[in-house]
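Limitations

Structures in this collection are predictions, not experimental determinations, and the ligand pose is part of the prediction. Treat each record accordingly. The example that follows, with magnesium ion as the small molecule, is included so readers can see exactly what is and is not provided: the inputs are given verbatim, and the output is the predicted complex.
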Amino acid sequence: MMKKHNFSAGPCVLPQEVLKKASEAVINFNGLDLSLIEISHRSKDFIEVMENARSLAIELLGLEGKGYKALFLQGGASLEFLMVAYNLLEKKAAYLNTGTWSSKALKEAKFLGEVAEVASSKDANFNYIPKGYTIPEDADYFHCTSNNTIFGTQIKDFPQTAVPLVCDMSSDIFSRQLDFSKFDLIYAGAQKNMGPAGTTLVVVKEEVLGKVSRAIPSMLDYKVHLDKDSMFNTPPVFAVYVSMLTLQWLKDLGGIAAIEKINNEKASLVYNEIDRNPLFKGFAAREDRSSMNATFNLVDEAHKDAFDALWKGAGINGLNGHRSVGGYRASMYNALSVESAKVLVETMQELEKKVG
Amino acid sequence: MMKKHNFSAGPCVLPQEVLKKASEAVINFNGLDLSLIEISHRSKDFIEVMENARSLAIELLGLEGKGYKALFLQGGASLEFLMVAYNLLEKKAAYLNTGTWSSKALKEAKFLGEVAEVASSKDANFNYIPKGYTIPEDADYFHCTSNNTIFGTQIKDFPQTAVPLVCDMSSDIFSRQLDFSKFDLIYAGAQKNMGPAGTTLVVVKEEVLGKVSRAIPSMLDYKVHLDKDSMFNTPPVFAVYVSMLTLQWLKDLGGIAAIEKINNEKASLVYNEIDRNPLFKGFAAREDRSSMNATFNLVDEAHKDAFDALWKGAGINGLNGHRSVGGYRASMYNALSVESAKVLVETMQELEKKVG
Ligand SMILES: Cc1ncc(COP(=O)(O)O)c(C=O)c1O
Ligand SMILES: Cc1ncc(COP(=O)(O)O)c(C=O)c1O
Ligand SMILES: [Mg+2]
Ligand SMILES: [Mg+2]
Ligand SMILES: [Mg+2]
Ligand SMILES: [Mg+2]
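Predicted complex:
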């Protein structure tokens, strides 16, 4: 097998040891002589997986004993756009618009009530994070996107809010230390830092629920899922299991504090090269640069074929930028090795040697 | 590895060759030197998986060229309870209540409009399928559950309907030949005859959509998913892949006609023994017996420990009945071998020898 350097934006690189265990469990899980995916989700063995996954999430975020619970749901972050509003929006909600995903979250919330867009960076193709905006005090909640996967920006300072704080952390959860107890509801599709596509982590402070007057359909009601310990209906067994393995891997590594150092090292390597190398320029405003997704372009598009051949030849995968930005996007999620970041830097330097 | 006989009601037994391929793909998919679960869902390799899964579903159901499309969604059949009503219920819908799942479907539909329960077998703990009911002609659609997983009953003759026919086929899709073109919308959680938990197949006749006046949130709108070829948001990659493998396995076997013969053979073996053996009695009305889930009880509960020891010792798994019925439930989905059905019959006969 050729060593690949997987910079895919999601689904994305996962730890090799996690993949190995997941592969084995598909054949024989827990020594049961049955596959993980052919046993009842009500079996002791799977209930243990679900409970481990839920408690590992709470523990890694430092939220034990603070009134939070974790759910593993289906539908992706996209269904959370709707569920958040169904469960929390009584009259008016405030949204910060920092990109494609924020815009979509905002759009779905409008089905349930009034939405105030407190600020937007759409004027500059979302290459920065708006600051100094005001959150209406009568909003039911404030919603933001911590990391903008497509544009490569990341919120560094979250606002102090009088109203509940809701955050889509799909693309940077478990990647950096934050005071997670500032948030009332966090959600994240698994397919970046947590596991395969097919499950969504929701971490919610229970006290914010039950305040809207509408009747909520069962599958969209966080309370229904909480009452059933995230097993109201058949959960996405495989995705939850692999998420559990990845969270255990992170815990064994030293948790968020440890991975944050590694993530910062990778981001420094890549951003330093983007800045140093005269052939490349960064897309996002410097102060808002994401440590997960580095977006950058060639100064001269004429070098595209040469660069593409170089990185593909080096075993790099998934470096093409999203069509909204063009150029390149180096997604450096938790499981990406420092070595992979170095290989990318070397190919950028090779291009310079070749054409510079 | 001890040979297991997996009678689990779902998630449940899958073909061994499917499990083997799935396990390999978690390490190295399509020879890419990357895991199936760490590549982009927009990659050529995964788009091919999704397209194959969709077209195999249509082909196996004999619905090619008849105006139908297939979707692989998230949220389980439970989310379809809601989506069906969101997309089709303008004023009033008609529901046949044949068990726990029908009741839940009906409950969610009530969030969107009026629901007429045309008949119910609740009076007899759902041990039969009501017949001779009338479907109101002004209903937006008629909803039924083809196979009642918990109670072990199955609809043999579907009513002629003037209104669109919607069916939850979660636990018997792809198991028997039907004129599937009688149905306007079919849905099924994957975790019985198709694959792992985590994806839901929806097969819909496009012409029935777009007729309700309400605005439908994106993730609940079948048209949104159809327009994006089932990739509106990140699909549950692994569950779709394994479903595709299972559908391919079924096609190679000879399709629904071939599996129906095997399913009938298994069902005959088990029901004949239930009837013959004086220690056991069937739960469901004979004419409505499910070929997928055989529910039965001990005539004398005093033999419970002896029988449980016998089947567990024989490598049988998942035979305990649902708490609504008690006793036993032998789920005999497509991937269960005739050999496993024979092993169950032998343990029933052994009990007779021991205590009879
Ligand atoms: C920040 C963010 N939010 C939401 C989504 C949508 O997630 P999903 O495809 O699971 O619905 C994505 C997907 O990449 C994302 O990056
Ligand atoms: C007939 C039927 N419908 C619906 C469901 C619910 O499916 P899910 O758990 O995927 O929501 C089940 C689950 O066993 C079922 O058997
Ligand atoms: Mg974005
Ligand atoms: Mg530069
Ligand atoms: Mg039932
Ligand atoms: Mg008998």
